Amino acid sequence: MKPVEIAKGIYNVGVKDWNIRDFHGYSTNMGTTYNAFLIVDEKIALIDTVKKEFADQLLKNIAQVVDPKKIDYVISNHTEMDHSGGLFKVLHKIGSDKPLYCSKMGQKNLSMHFPYDWNFQVVGTGDELSLGKRTLSFIETRMLHWPDSMFSYIKEDGILFSSDAFGQHYAGKEVFDDEIGDSIMPHAKKYYANILLLFSPLVKKLLESVQSMGLSINMICPDHGILWRSNPSKIIEAYSRWSSQETKEKAVIIFDTMWSSTEKMAEAIYEGLCSEGIDARPMHVRKCDRSDIMTEILDAKAVIVGSPTLNNNLFPTISDLLTYMKGLKPKNRIGAAFGSYGWSGEAVKQINNELTAMKFELIDEGLNVQYVPGANALEECVELGKKIGKAIKN
Ligand code: FEO
Q1: What is the pLDDT of residues 299-340, one digit of tens each?
Q2: Under a CB-based contact definition with an 8 Å cutoff, are residues 40 and 67 in contact?
Q3: Residue 38's domain spans which residues?
Q4: Which residues line the pocket of ligand 1, CB cutoff 6 A?
Q5: Boundary-marking domain end, from 193, 216, 243
Q6: pLDDT, tens digit, 9 for 90 and up, residues 330-363
Q7: How far is the CA of 275 from the centre of ligand 1 (A)?
Q8: What's the pTM value of the predicted model, to 2 decimals?
């Protein structure tokens, strides 16, 4: 990716990772970008780097704008290695004594990743760094989503460099929101559901505190995906909704199946939900990536989970999904369990326990069918779907 001048004297010098398809377990079907920003003023600052394997490309991109050795300051908004992996190579090239600005936790975490005595300059919320005509100010965003995370903001331009927040795993020809339109929103939604959902209370607080600071925001530049320049309030409003855990009249039916019995139950429950006018979606866990399932759960009022009993336990893929979902802390949901079994039938009870641990409201004790669901059992599944549908509407 060639450097793109995103505002006068400010460049995105990051890289596109077209072919990454698995980002630590999150499916990235459209690849991703590692954005890094070069601000050329009386002093020159680089905000964030890229994954280690792209560091040479980052340096080449910078060199198309200025000699990298002319960089005066490096800002690390976030320690995670997709943004800091290139730090060693960048600092080695530009001079390892150059000031490296980061939060207090950033210094701690970078020191645990890199055994070098770098020139750390610790900053916190409200601290400023003058670049000449422009001033960078810093806002700590601890636990959004790492302890070290922070934003950098140029007040003269109203540009917020937001690290992972407001990002999307998307690599395309577009750079800005107005070039891609609403089709970027599912990527932003997936990013929120899988990276930030568990931190929703902190996201809410952050949005409030940014509002109370009265920051004028003309552009939001995340470290992944497109930049929000035409309508930054669109993604801020989406974050406000998602962090409130607002749901729709929607149900996700998550299941695995061994000999199609649990699948037949899922389809019958779906039928019942549809007859109540609910937007329902059955998702087979071995055919849908867990990050896509989580994206659907983000705005679903009901989460219905089905599993065969295998060796007196849940099917392992269902355990995987429940563990993942529990970590992301969806709130204010209703739930129900179903499943088939041969001779013991523990799965439904175990799902109920997991949903209860997540504080889901169980609206039924669950349906457990031995071997193959017959007409009566399938009718019970339809009725369960209707019952859940009514509960969603209430
Ligand atoms: Fe894109 Fe938390 O790293």
Answers
A1: 999 999 999 999 999 999 999 999 999 999 999 999 999 999
A2: no
A3: 4-243
A4: 78, 80, 82-83, 145-146, 164, 223-224
A5: 243
A6: 999 999 999 999 999 999 999 999 999 999 999 9
A7: 42
A8: 0.97
